[in-house]
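Q: Second attempt. The first request was missing the SMILES, so the protein and 2-acetamido-2-deoxy-beta-D-glucopyranose are both included now.
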Amino acid sequence: MRTKNFIFLLALVILFSFLLIILGPGNSTNITNIQNIANQQFKQIKENLRTEKEKQLDVDEKYLRLLGFQEDVSTTRGGSTNLLNTTKQNFSVVSYVLEGQLAASILQLQNLASVMANENLHIYNLGLSEEDLQTLSITCNSSNIKCTIIQPDFSVYPLYIMDDKFHLYRPLIIKHALSKFKTILFTGNHVRLRGNSKVFYDIKRKTEEQNHVKSLEIKKLPVTSSTHPRMFDYFDSDDDSFLFVRQVTLDAVFFHQSKFLDDKILLPWIKCVLTPQCIQPIGASSNTNHCKFNKKPAYRYSGCHGYDESAFNVVCGLAFNFNEAKYSLTDNDSALFYKEKLEDSIRILEIRKRNISEHHPYTSEHPYNDE
Ligand SMILES: *[C@@H]1O[C@H](CO)[C@@H](O)[C@H](O)[C@H]1NC(C)=O
Ligand SMILES: *[C@@H]1O[C@H](CO)[C@@H](O)[C@H](O)[C@H]1NC(C)=O
Ligand SMILES: *[C@@H]1O[C@H](CO)[C@@H](O)[C@H](O)[C@H]1NC(C)=O
Ligand SMILES: *[C@@H]1O[C@H](CO)[C@@H](O)[C@H](O)[C@H]1NC(C)=O
Ligand SMILES: *[C@@H]1O[C@H](CO)[C@@H](O)[C@H](O)[C@H]1NC(C)=O
Ligand SMILES: CC(=O)N[C@H]1CO[C@H](CO)[C@@H](O)[C@@H]1O
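A: Got both inputs this time. The predicted holo structure:
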């Protein structure tokens, strides 16, 4: 589509050059005339292109208003954006838990309590069973991190938002959490931080002072390898711009609330998420059996689309002029955390439970103790 436009423009330029030559240099007063016409047409073409793109990311404003985006609520000036009308706390770690992931959430909680003791931790519950929720709540309240379980209401959003395959609730959680905290560290419950808190506070400070967003993990592969080519159209961009921009992940990312973050990252990101053709272009698949990351050259689309993570990489690339160093860390810092599979978490928790009941057979009030 972009190539076609380019060829069209090129044809126009050649046509006008041709006219200029025919009219000859003697006709100098009318050359400017022609140039003016050419300029006008050029402007109009650009204008058309832009409105066409904007239409494509047209999102029901009610969704944006619910999330507390103010810029877009021009029609209801002074409308209640009650999310923003609260005094914000400084910082929280933000995570989420799906049905069946209790073990992962408990182990994450314990990990964070040891690395970032006394901080806030907000866990968004996206479907734990009553019993598991009760267990998590007890663990939460007895831990030495200020742990809170949030019950988000995403029922107003299209159903596909809650589909685990696409995990599109992640940007919504981030936006929601940033209405309560100035800075957050967003993570999944498979993430375990390594080392001491100083490293993380340093990155937090950098995020606050500089660039408003910092992912703790960057991959070798470029954005284009995991992003369906059609997604770029919705951002008035193209895959050519991203061939050598490395991907960052959403596994552990610092966000600092600012107008820049809202306008350049969160708004376009969430607009795409709420536009099905943008976030899941026809033919896009997340099925890892289809991924072919060994394709040469590395920037070729692997056949595996990253949904919210892909869109995140596109908006960050555009917001930071394709300089991924601005929204990620150097490779040396990439060992700041590791990822634990759910089955491993379940096994580890089981071992701990057994060990505790062997060593302390009478402390039956311990949450992991009941058999
Ligand atoms: C926040 O909302 C309350 C009522 O809910 C209102 O009285 C107060 O003025 C609001 N504060 C700001 C800063 O808008
Ligand atoms: C929040 O940050 C401000 C300024 O950065 C600081 O003065 C204040 O003590 C912090 N509050 C807490 C509870 O840490
Ligand atoms: C944990 O603490 C919260 C807030 O203080 C409270 O609402 C909840 O009932 C507590 N959970 C348990 C299981 O005690
Ligand atoms: C990063 O690691 C490499 C070797 O692994 C080392 O040569 C380099 O000095 C390190 N850079 C920083 C900034 O620590
Ligand atoms: C089991 O518990 C003992 C004492 O509480 C501890 O020293 C040991 O490291 C534990 N083993 C495992 C595998 O957790
Ligand atoms: C020198 C010359 O040909 N001038 C013409 C330029 O074009 C205008 C109309 O746009 C004519 O009125 C001039 O005669």
